[in-house]
């Protein structure tokens, strides 16, 4: 899993809270490590493997109902742009795949793509993906 914001946005506890036996004092800053949740082998089989087909028929989505996968957060502060992002991503990806045939620069095969990540406030590919679009739709 490759969440855009590996620690979501900083949250603050509005009251003292008990979380899995730990006391979270009022006013603590709380960071949710969704990157680590996505790499937890007790939740995901082969967590480091890029396997989008793992979600086929699983019923798991990114809408904040499955806490193993919350790239948009969850609860009251869930990303309000989720419905827009969800529509735009499908539209953009569908249009790009429909209009172009994609080749990898240097003639490398898809399995050779370096999926390592570079960390910051957001996660990026350590080695940017270099692709060559070949127009198939006039
Ligand atoms: C793929 C695209 C996007 C991803 C992965 C994403 C992810 C996130 C995440 C992880 C948060 C923090 C949630 C939390 O801390 O619990 C967030 C908050 C937010 N996002 Fe997005 N977002 C995306 C697109 C958008 C778009 C398109 C908009 C606006 C049009 C938007 C507006 C916001 C706003 C305003 C917040 C702050 C909400 C709050 O703090 O109450 N996001 N987003």
From TrEMBL:
PROSITE patterns in the record: CYTOCHROME_P450
Family listed: Belongs to the cytochrome P450 family.
UniProt KW Iron keyword: yes
Source organism: Hibiscus sabdariffa
Keyword Protein transport part of the UniProt annotation: no
Alphabetical list of InterPro entries matching this protein: Cyt_P450, Cyt_P450_CS, Cyt_P450_E_grp-I, Cyt_P450_sf
Name under which the protein is recorded: Uncharacterized protein
Keyword line: Heme, Iron, Metal-binding, Monooxygenase, Oxidoreductase
PANTHER family: CYTOCHROME P450 FAMILY PROTEIN, EXPRESSED (PTHR47950:SF48), CYTOCHROME P450, FAMILY 76, SUBFAMILY C, POLYPEPTIDE 5-RELATED (PTHR47950)
Taxonomic superkingdom: Eukaryota
